[in-house]
Write a structure and sequence with these properties.
Number of domains: 2
CATH topology of the largest domain: Quinone Oxidoreductase, Chain A, domain 1
Shape: globular
Radius of gyration: 20 Å
Strand content: 25-35%
Structural class: alpha+beta
CATH superfamily of the largest domain: Medium-chain alcohol dehydrogenases, catalytic domain
Largest sheet: 5 strands, antiparallel
Helix content: 10-25%
Strand order of the largest sheet: 6-3-4-5-7
CATH architecture of the largest domain: Alpha-Beta Complex
Distance between the termini: 55 Å
CATH class of the largest domain: Alpha Beta
Number of helices: 5
Length: 209
């Protein structure tokens, strides 16, 4: 197969498109044929990208394949059938999805939403999970609470607005977006929500108190 790989630490200048071994799935893993993949801008600066431990103290894994968000079809194990369309976030200490095939633990995959194209779904996992982790796992937001979201039109922010609304919070968000259409849909039923498209720094400080 072909893949984008880096043979030594560095930035995008280290990436090369070349022939690479096709991975073989271990027990509990799925071989996924990649149709779309998304890379995080800082991914090549993370220690976990280059070693087998999140803190960077593990064994060097070069050459590595970046891009840990994947959306595709693939053969499966329990709960996944050959030909299923799936997407997921690959653990950062494993090779990513910038390749024709990637081997992935089956428990990090989910069924691809039928109404979305592969490239859009591939960009979903990290941003959506970041927003959910912040609001639900760490902040433990509850219905009726006030939630202030800076950058509500951004990748993480647009999901944060929707998640806060689904939790029935009173949501206020800032955005510099000035287009004719709002880039994300606030679900119904939802909380009272306001979008502030321009605001001075002093006003932002007062509103955040």
């Amino acid at each position: 197969m072909h893949a984008v790989r880096a043979h030594s630490r560095g930035g995008p200048e280290q990436l090369v498109y070349e022939v690479a071994p096709r991975p073989r799935p271990a027990p509990g893993e799925v071989l996924v044929a990649v149709r779309a993949a998304s890379i995080t801008s800082d991914e090549l600066t993370w220690d976990a990208t280059w070693t087998d431990r999140l803190d960077g103290t593990g064994k060097d894994r070069t050459p590595i394949i970046p891009s840990h968000e994947v959306s595709e079809l693939g053969p499966g194990v329990t709960g996944v059938a050959v030909g299923d369309e799936v997407y997921g976030l690959i653990p950062f200490t494993r090779d990513g999805a910038a390749a024709e095939y990637v081997s992935v633990p089956v428990d990090v995959l989910a069924a691809k939403p039928a109404g979305l194209e592969h490239d859009k779904v591939a960009a979903l996992p990290l941003t959506a999970l970041t927003a959910r982790q912040a609001l639900v796992d760490h902040a433990s937001v509850k219905a009726g609470q006030h939630v202030l979201i800076q950058g509500g039109a951004g990748g993480v922010g647009s999901f944060a607005v929707q998640i806060a609304s689904l939790e029935l919070c009173v949501c206020l968000w800032f955005t510099g977006f000035s287009g004719a259409a709002w880039p994300c849909a606030v679900p119904k039923p939802c909380s009272i929500s306001w979008a502030v498209r321009s605001c001075s720094r002093a006003s932002r400080r007062r509103l955040s108190r």
